[in-house]
Amino acid sequence: MSGETNEEEEERRHGSSSCCDKANVKKGPWSPEEDAKLKAYIEQYGTGGNWIALPQKIGLKRCGKSCRLRWLNYLRPNIKHGGFSEEEDNIICSLYISIGSRWSIIAAQLPGRTDNDIKNYWNTKLKKKLLGRRKQSNNIHSNSALERLQLHMQLQGLHNPFSFYNNPALWPKNIHPLQDKMIQSMQAAASNGNPNLLMQPLLENPQPANEQSVGDLYDPKNFKPRGLKCWIILWMEYLHRMTRSKLQGELDEFLNNKTAGYPQEEKWLIKYWIVQGHEWFKGKLDLVAD
DNA sequence: AAGTACCGCAACCGCGCTCGC
DNA sequence: GGCGAGCGCGGTTGCGGTACT
Fold first, then answer.
1. Which nucleotides of chain C are near protein (any atom < 7 Å from a CB)?
2. Which pairs with CB-CB distance under 8 Å and at least 24 residues apart come from A154-162?
């Protein structure tokens, strides 16, 4: 036996911290006794608006930040853990698509849920559920265009669709002539930094010079092989409409029409990429305007 | 049965913001 | 206006349990 107490053992295992590295500050998992002390005190006296001073008042060898976290994420009343409902999944996905990883804002829309819980749920389950089911529902093999596009963007660490269009190795083998024209204009825009070129194929020549009309392409029943085809056309049409009409609020309605009958995960994914693409595009327009 | 890989989650860390002095 | 303390947040870490080989 080393003679180490449990608390010393915990401290040794977790090391010292820079934030709360005062002597006698315990780290690591909370014991039931510590939980009970903190809970009882806050229920009786409140936090007093000063977390830093709290542990001293209670007699806990913890830093204020740790107490705050423990209370907010675990001890405060009406906290729910696990068992996320389908409705909660929808809210989380929709908000994530709209505002990104603003977990505290997302948590504010879900009573009883904490930002930490939602963050963990998204990172460990929901994201996989979304991607996993999409893969399953479409019977897409692992190197599908959309997946490669997504992976590529993740690796790039930026939401820049041009980086995809500049890398032919990532493109699918068989693409529609209209898509080819779009890609060419994307490359041209990427090389000279003029986003207006993006619109040229549609603005100058809305009808593709081949057997299939634009209308046919947009018909949902022609979207069956989803992947890149779907993404490019939805995104280009959306940019086209946004640029011309400035009807910001029409994205949802537009997507609902175009993705009618698609699995929810597929809708989330498409909306995600369109919003990211549009945000990036808007940034480019701002730069040009400057 | 033992070793290893993977996963989920609680807790920590560090940055940026706010507010009071 | 400058400064520091405290707070809130998002990202990351690492432990413990489980699945897999």
1. 5-12, 14-15
2. A158/A280, A159/A276, A159/A277, A159/A279, A159/A280, A160/A280, A161/A186, A161/A235, A161/A277, A161/A280, A162/A186, A162/A187, A162/A189, A162/A190
